[in-house]
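Here is one chain, start to finish.
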Amino acid sequence: MREDLCLCPSIPVYDLPTRLVLVMHYRELPKTTATGPLALVALPNSELRVQGLRDQILDFRDLDVPERRTLLLYPADDAPILSRDFLDVDPRPVTLVVPDGTWSQASRMGKRLPGLDHAEMVRLPEGPRTQWGIRREPHPHGLATFEAIARAYGIIESPAVQSGMEELFLLMVERTIQGQNPAKTNNDSESAG
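Its structure:
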């Protein structure tokens, strides 16, 4: 992203009990349209694990600790919907594992991530359509990874966290579009003056 479009000064930081483990497919890492890494900056209690590297096998057994509840955000129709009622059954702090990739990459990751047999699969309730628009979304309820994380944190933590993260996401969308259309940005600023 161009320096004049940098998001850094606008990124809110949410130091929260919920821990995010973002699992990115290695093919998504270099893509400028990958939204998950922005969540890592806004959420200091987070980490990135890369799936699909030839000599690196992921193992999530370290997440199986008695003081935390591990949830795997996964869009399976038979997964329970993430809600306050669902969370209230087990009040331990949450470790939220979020697969990041194309729909097919994420669905394969969700089924194959080793050491997550203790995790509970959950899905988001239906909500507004994605605001991303930079990539084509083949599924009607598909979301950009950052949007999904924001909505999950809205349920787990608070609506205020979700709102702040969604504002950042919309700014990212706006600036990404500006970065792709520099001539339009220059024309807009000339006509505004």
